Amino acid sequence: MPAEGPALKALLLRLHTNSLAQEEEISKPDGKWTTLKALKRQGDAGDAAALADYQQQFDDLMRDKMIALDQDKALFIYHLCRALSATRIVEAGTSFGLSTIYLALAVGQNASKLGPEQRKAAKVIATENEPSKAILARQHWKEAGEEVEQWIELREGDLRQTLASNLPEEIDFVLFDIWTPMVVPALRVLEPNLKKGAVIVADNVTSSAYGYEDFHDYIKTRRNAYRSLVLPYSGGLEFTVYDP
């Protein structure tokens, strides 16, 4: 664990445990996800009503679900951000704020090596469209304490608007753990501010391959700017370097 205090370690463990329990519940053979997959297949086959029904039920199901980054992935992005000395991070899709804690710990520890002026710019810009999740995220960050909370700026609402202004001049690291249709719109907003060598990590690119087709098409058409590979984590974790 990157955290030193027992209270923060206990919080991370509790949140990871809760997230896994939620995933197991909805993934049961007789669970809600089975019905949703059937509706999705109908929608993909051209049934517009089934597709609309799927989207509504999916949104309802996920509204109170954490479905956070797995612990091994969270540890990876923490160590990656430490290795990159990343202090200007954007997280698209904070949910209940679990992965944000890892990112904020890395930012804070990296910022401790900077001068006072540089330290002022160090932060994780987290986004969340669901108000109830934003409330819980803030509660978790408050519980995590000052070594986490002070490094996070939460932007609530549609990220196409909330990320459209007041970004760092150079972004070091981006995490996409969000509804996949929003990945490309978010990347387009962030791209002008990505620094050369910025790293982008996207979760579940294998298990949600269909949803990531637009993202993969986007970076393939910009091969001169993006270099990407999928790491062998559960569901697939894509590692992309911006190097125009």
UniProtKB/TrEMBL annotation:
Gene Ontology molecular function terms on file: O-methyltransferase activity
Swiss-Prot/TrEMBL keywords: Methyltransferase, S-adenosyl-L-methionine, Transferase
Keyword Transferase belongs to the record: yes
One GO BP: methylation
A Pfam match: Methyltransf_24
Lineage top rank: taxon: Eukaryota
Record bears the keyword Endoplasmic reticulum: no
Matching InterPro entries: SAM-dependent_MTases_sf (IPR029063), SAM_O-MeTrfase (IPR002935)
PANTHER family, sorted: PUTATIVE (AFU_ORTHOLOGUE AFUA_6G01830)-RELATED
Annotated family: Belongs to the class I-like SAM-binding methyltransferase superfamily. Cation-dependent O-methyltransferase family.
UniProt protein name: O-methyltransferase
